[in-house]
Specification:
The complex is a heterodimer. Chain A is an all-alpha fold. Chain A contains 8 helices and 2 strands. Chain A has a two-stranded antiparallel sheet. In chain A, a hairpin with a 5-residue loop joins strand 1 and strand 2. Chain A is elongated. Chain B folds into 2 domains: about 100 residues, Rna Polymerase Sigma Factor, Chain: A, CATH 1.10.1740; about 50 residues, Orthogonal Bundle (Arc Repressor Mutant, subunit A), CATH 1.10.10. In chain B, helix 1 crosses helix 2, helix 2 crosses helix 4 and helix 3 packs across helix 4. The chains are: A mainly alpha, B mainly alpha. Chains A and B meet through helix 1, helix 3 and helix 4 of A and helix 2, helix 3, helix 6, helix 7 and helix 9 of B.
Chain lengths: ~190, ~190
Amino acid sequence: MEKACRTQNETLMLDVLGELNDSRMRREWEGHLRACDSCRRERSRMLQLLGKVREVGMPPELSAAQMDAMAGAVGWRLRNERLSRPQKTGWRLRLVPALATACALLVVVAFGYRFRDRWAGPEGGGEIAAELQAEDLDIIKHLDLLKDMGTIEKLIHVVDIDRPPDGEAPDQPAPETQGMHRDDNGKAYA
Amino acid sequence: MELIRRARDNDPWASDQLVRRYQKKVYGIAYQLCGFDPEEARDTAQEAFLQVFRNLGQFEGRSRFSTWLHRIAVNACLDARRRRNRWFRMILPRRTERHDEGDPEDPIEKVPAPEDGMDPVSNVRGAELKRDVMAALRGLSEHQRKVFQLKVFQEMSIPEIAHATGMAEGTVKSHLFRATQSVREQLSQWVDR
């Protein structure tokens, strides 16, 4: 495939697309075409190609029935549009939905206001919940202290088992300390 | 002009006459801008006529009615095409890809049986050319294709295309050059024969 001169490519395009309007550019281009065989041939090919593309773009003939159908459909839609136009542009049509929406909103707000207590839950329920919450918080706050208290309680329990109640002879050792003896300092050993 | 005045005054007979007088022209525009699909072109032509009648009040008679109608019809077809592309992109992205690729069926399969006196070879060659032109146009970007179609089929000037598409003239020129070069390369076998 022979190509046109690179420098003339844009001018060639403008020419074949019918956009070479500048008279000086056109004169120069025509002078170049007389001298350049490859540009002349490329121009001819481009025109031929665009002609073929236009040929493909030629629409098929509309049949009489298709023409009638199109005219009928356009007429029908025009009639429908004209019939519905006064309603569409009427101020009443815009005002009525606006008023209806406002009324609906008003009813919803009034209803909500009227039954606000019922939706807040059973009577006093809120206070009980608050009390329970405070109690829980108190337990969490004193958790360490409660743990310490538990340890102390266990310690007392162990000490109480070792020491017999007043007035009672230690006939038998407690089950936990069986086989154990105490030294002078009171420490237990096996 | 009398027909236009009567159509503007909602005279159904005048509207019908205007449609019948210009339907081939509007259908042709729609056919060329809607991917050579006759059915879609008929629907788009109807939409274009509705736009024409909706805007008839704005026609002042400063230009020829056919020029004004051409402009409205081109804009209506471009709008219809934009809407369709947007719809396909939004709802059916996969379908859009296929749509952009064009009809998967070979157009040669659709070649009608030649009528009496018609050369079957030229009939097949015509179908082949159509297939190749459609493939070449599908190879262009949306902007390139639009600009190329408006130039080649509607014979609009660069400023007119810029006005119709809302692009700058330089952008139109650039798209047009690239599109023409691409089509030239794609269809080289048809010009070198």
